[in-house]
Design brief:
The chain has 788 residues and is of the alpha/beta class. 52% of the residues lie in helices and 15% in strands. The chain has 23 helices and 23 strands.
């Protein structure tokens, strides 16, 4: 089951698809766009809308992302499957397609932003790097078979060049020969039928030995291949034939290689076509400033600030609803006021959403899913079928009434028009009642005053009108729900110059009740206009307030970032103080060691002094180390916790606890991203006090270290600053406990860390020498240091 084809035609859905196709880069993508039809089940509609949203997200992150470079290789695959050959240009097109497919899969697979639908699309892409390389080896970029394609081909081409050189040398001798110069028309060498020839005058035909291959138009010049190069020419011709056979063989091998992977390549191409199609939907949404509506599993429509997708320029947005408080909306108002535009806007938004396209309306818009959409819009007059305007409309309405049900949306323009007003109004009310009883959601436009009363008296039916400015005699194109429209015929006629006497006489023909109704409608419309004006003012003020709030929040984030930079600068200065303190401490320890050699009895005093120095260093280094590490400890991360991503200054909340790599899954706005712990901060209101530290004496620390002292220090995973600080402490303890050789494990792949550690060792007073070495099981990336 599919949406009624006549409704698609009346609502000009094909023009939407035409615009969509213009954003596709591939002809196959354009075919998908042309054949796109609205879905009638909520699950595929939701998936298609999510794909379009992912496409917009991808383009926001990488605006130039596309399938550019992909060629339509379907006919090439079919030819290979039939055993045919591809020429070099076609082979390069296949290679380019494979290359782009591989890169697109790699880009999407490695993206830190979650794109589940795109990942599913490219899952079918099986990279064909080997086939790419083989085509690149055999086919050069100038679209010829390369000498590298085979040794046989390279040998033949060298032989061909050798023969051509010998022929040219022989002919050059003939051209320069005094004997033959008078016989030649021109002293040149040319070719005829792939044979090298010289132009000889007709009268010297008998005197010049050789084979005639051509003559000039006048017959005065003969193109003769001299007899002494005929044999060389024959050899060259044989090499040409062998070269062509070798080229055909190489092309055959490449075609067979493509045929062997034809199914995988077809899946790759199909995936790229779908990527192109989804990106086209995303580009169309951006071009229309469109967004995804909220889908609900009921038959209803709530469009907020919706714009007709095909109108250019500054279109007036419409806010309308159906299926909530009422199931039938009757729109009245003057001609050219926008009634038909309102009908088409609603119908097109429904069709676009069900086709997986975003709609030009605010994100708060809500749409249900309709299994069928019917439309009777425009002039149905047909001379061929002997149908008047009324007959044409009535024929359509009869077909609609026979097919419609509770899952249908029905759009009727000027219902009952084209016949006697009283009969037309009666028919219109009967038809609308029938559609209402069938459970359909209906929007109808009309000029009949009786339908306004019908809408007022009938449950689940509501009036609406398009606004008209009586001062300017122009429609404002705004839709007013709950207020029936008026024709404004008297106002328009007066503005156009109709005399007051004629207008007064016309009003006399109206009943008193009709005049009262007209005045009431005019008063209601003025009240509604005032309400709408106030609503717009409130909305504008709210928008200004929200902008000011966002600006204030942005300034706060900037101030926090500035504060962090100031703190970082202070920490750098503190780090310099710490390094100077360490140098002073090293000098003091050296002096104490010298004293130790002279007087062993002073060891206790030395230990006490060293402990005091280390305590000072520890106190000064704590802030710097904490800042260098940055981020949050893993044990402070909780599910659902609000955090601040320091790089983008964006708030989010925790979806998953840290993994082994120290990365946390965070929901930031519409995106789910993985963030390292070092880039996370608690927001101010959720910062937690640090846990109490256990306090121990310096004597206890010294005894514990003496008992647990190891010959190795593992600094893998540390920053250079942290590693140097840990190494400095470790060296002091090693010297006091008498260790002569230590192993510093920094890992093989951490060049910066290894360089930082070795720079630190190079100037340290406790180090006699150091080298890269081995320790434990295998090469872990170790520096072996000898202590003094």
């Amino acid at each position: 089951m599919s949406i009624n084809a006549k409704a698609l035609e009346k609502l000009e859905f094909a023009k939407i698809l035409q615009r969509l196709g213009s954003f596709c880069l591939l002809s196959a993508g354009q075919e998908m766009a042309e054949n796109l039809l609205p879905e009638i089940e909520i699950a595929p509609i939701r998936v298609n809308l999510e794909k379009t949203e992912e496409g917009k997200t991808l383009l926001d992150l990488q605006p130039l992302f596309s399938v550019r470079g992909v060629k339509d290789i379907r006919q090439y695959l079919a030819r290979c499957r039939r055993g045919g050959l591809l020429n070099p240009d076609e082979l390069l097109q296949v290679k380019d397609t494979l290359r782009v497919g591989r890169h697109i899969k790699q880009t999407i697979s490695e993206s830190k932003v979650l794109l589940p639908h795109f990942r599913e699309m490219v899952a079918a892409i099986e990279p064909q790097k080997g086939l790419e390389d083989e085509i690149s080896r055999c086919i050069s970029e100038d679209r010829t078979v390369s000498d590298h394609a085979s040794a046989e081909l390279a040998g033949l081409r060298k032989n061909k060049q050798r023969l051509q050189q010998r022929i040219r040398e022989t002919l050059d001798g003939i051209v320069r020969s005094a004997t033959y110069q008078k016989m030649l028309q021109d002293p040149i060498i040319t070719q005829r039928s792939d044979r090298y020839v010289v132009p000889v005058k007709q009268e010297y035909r008998v005197s010049f030995p050789g084979i005639v291959h051509d003559q000039s138009a006048s017959g005065a010049t003969l193109f003769i291949e001299p007899m002494n190069v005929v044999q060389l020419g024959n050899e060259l011709r044989a090499v040409f034939i062998q070269e062509e056979r070798e080229i055909q063989r190489i092309l055959q091998v490449l075609a067979q290689a493509i045929d062997a992977q034809a199914q995988a390549i077809a899946w790759l191409f199909a995936a790229l076509v779908e990527v192109d199609f989804v990106l086209a939907k995303a580009r169309l949404a951006r071009d229309m400033n469109a967004g995804a509506p909220k889908l609900v599993d009921r038959r209803m429509i709530r469009l907020i600030q919706a714009r007709h997708p095909l109108l250019t320029g500054q279109a007036v947005p419409l806010t309308l609803e159906l299926g909530g408080g009422f199931d039938l909306l009757v729109i009245t108002g003057p001609n050219t006021g926008g009634k038909t535009v309102a009908l088409k806007t609603m119908g097109l938004c429904v069709l676009m959403a069900q086709a997986g396209l975003h709609i030009p309306a605010e994100s708060e818009s809500v749409l249900g899913v309709f299994r069928q959409v019917f439309a009777d819009i425009g002039d149905e007059q047909s001379l061929e079928q002997s149908l008047s305007t009324f007959s044409g409309h009535m024929k359509n309405i009869v077909e609609i009434a026979q097919q419609t049900d509770q899952s249908s949306l029905v759009l009727l323009d000027e219902i009952g028009a084209g016949t006697d007003p009283s009969e037309g109004a009666a028919l219109a009310m009967a038809i609308l009642s029938e559609l209402l009883e069938a459970g359909s959601k209906v929007v109808a436009t009309t000029h009949y005053g009786a339908l306004k009363t019908f809408a007022y008296r009938t449950p689940r039916v509501e009036n609406a009108s398009v606004e008209f400015d009586a001062d300017t005699l122009r429609p404002t194109y705004r839709l007013l729900i709950g207020i029936p429209g008026k024709s404004n015929a008297f106002n328009i006629a007066a503005r156009l110059g109709l005399s007051g006497d004629v207008l007064a006489r016309a009003k006399d023909y109206l009943s008193e009740r009709e005049m009262q109704v007209s005045d009431l409608l005019e008063n209601l419309e003025e009240i509604q206009r005032d309400i709408e004006t106030e609503k717009r003012k409130v909305a504008e003020q709210r928008q200004v307030t929200e902008e000011q709030s966002r600006f204030a929040e942005q300034k706060l984030l900037q101030m926090e970032a500035h504060y962090e930079r100031i703190v970082a600068k202070a920490q750098d200065e503190a780090g310099e103080i710490i390094r100077q303190t360490r140098r002073d401490a090293d000098q003091l320890i050296n002096e104490l060691k010298e004293a130790l050699k002279k007087d062993q009895k002073k060891q206790q005093d030395i230990e006490r002094a060293r402990t005091g120095i280390k305590s000072l260093q520890t106190k000064m280094a704590k802030p710097s180390a904490a800042h260098a590490a940055g981020g949050l400890p893993a044990d402070q991360i909780l599910l659902g916790q609000t955090v601040l991503i320091s790089q983008g200054q964006q708030k989010g909340y925790v979806l998953k606890l840290p993994n082994e790599q120290g990365e946390v899954l965070v929901q930031a706005g519409i995106m789910k991203i993985t963030v390292p712990l070092r880039d996370l901060r608690l927001v101010q209101e959720e910062k937690k006090p640090q846990k109490n530290q256990r306090v121990v004496s310096s004597g206890q620390i010294g005894r514990e270290k003496a008992q647990e002292m190891r010959h190795e220090l593992d600094v893998r995973g540390m920053l250079v600053e942290e590693a140097c600080y840990a190494l400095d402490k470790y060296l002091d303890d090693a010297v006091l406990t008498g260790i002569q050789q230590i192993y510093i494990i920094h890992g093989k792949g951490t060049g910066a860390l290894r360089a930082g550690v070795q720079d630190f060792l190079r100037g340290h007073p406790h180090i006699q020498s150091f080298r890269l070495g081995y320790h434990g099981e295998g090469d872990l990336g170790v520096t072996v240091a000898e202590l003094k």
